[in-house]
Amino acid sequence: MAEKRYYWLKLQDDFFNSLRIKKLRKLAGGDTFTIIYLKMQLLAMKKDGVLEYKGLEDSFPKELALELDEDEDNVDVTVRYLLSCGLLETSNEQKYFVPYAVENTGSEGSSAKRMREARAKSVTLCEQSAKLCAHRYGEKEIEIEIEKETDIEKEESMEPPAAPPAPAPEPPKPVRHKYGEYGWVRLTDEEHARLLKDLGGEELQRCITYVDESAQRTRNKNKWSDWNLVVRKCHREGWGMKQYRGTSTGFETSNPFLEMMQEERGKQ
Fold first, then answer.
1. Model-level pTM?
2. What is the CATH number of the domain that holds 58?
3. How many structural domains compose the chain?
4. Closest CA to 60 of 44, 72, 71
5. Is residue 143 situated within a structural domain?
6. What strand order describes the sheet that includes 50-52?
7. At what angle do helices 201-218 and 256-267 cross, to 10 degrees?
8. Do 15 and 95 share a domain, yes or no?
9. Are residues 98 and 9 in the same domain?
10. C-beta of residue 252 within 8 angstroms of C-beta of residue 245
């Protein structure tokens, strides 16, 4: 018999601060659209983030509205918005990928659930036992402990330890400012000025946007820390140029992290 699994959707603490979610909520009926997006994640998290159009209705939004028990027009507006900003992806209009449903899904088997509950119960029993022992601690023992602490304090007051020399003040660290929608890219004023001089304004903005979105999508799985070098590498190796369309923001991509991985494999 297959083990039963339990799934849950983890909501990032910056979910409602995301510019894409803020824009969705500002639309007429935006709160309803946000609920529909969350229900889509719940539906996709057990299917590796994929929502499949089975052809039961005339279109995917209509079939999804039937499955979510939501109004067809509201679902249609939500799907079109999510596709426009990269929160929903498709290549053939048959299978739709919800990226954050994969990144924010947690699960455990029934045996792991039982062990977790047993550990929690054991901790509770230990805490109760500790409190019971504290209540039964005799007055005699308490007096002895107080006397010992008093003697120790007297000895310490009679022979004060020599004060250690004050450490030399550390030089102030340069302030790093956040760049990009999600604030992953951090540069000092000097680093930003040099990048602006070497790359130009438009290319610098494109590289910052690409690196920032890549780090947000993977929660910085690559462990980037020297953002100055990462931005320069993005420019030098042309990360994201295949998806560059010259939009008003200068950059647009459906999945920058996967694109970056594909480019790295092509060089090997």
1. 0.40
2. 1.10.10
3. 2
4. 72
5. no
6. 50-52, 95-97, 89-90
7. 100
8. yes
9. yes
10. yes
Which residues does residue 95 pair with via DSSP β-bridges, in sequence order? 52
Note the pLDDT tens digit of each residue in 67-84.
999 999 999 999 999 999
Burial category of 208 from C-beta neighbours within 10 Å (exposed 0-12, middle 13-18, buried 19 and up): buried
Q: Is residue 165 part of a domain?
A: no
Domain boundary among 79, 106, 133: 106
Asked if 10 and 101 sit in the same domain, the reply is yes
List of residues 6+ apart from 264 with CB closer than 8 A:
none
Using alpha carbons only, how large is the chain's radius of gyration in Å?
A: 28
Residue-range definition of the domain harbouring residue 198: 177-267
pLDDT of 11 > 90? The answer is: no
d(CA 78, CA 61): 9
Average pLDDT, the chain: 79
Question: What is the identity of the amino acid at 211?
Answer: V
- CB half-sphere exposure, 195, CA atoms < 13 A: 27
Taking the C-alpha atoms of 232, 236, 240 and 244 in order, what is their torsion angle to the nearest 10 degrees?
100
Token couple for 266: 């092509």
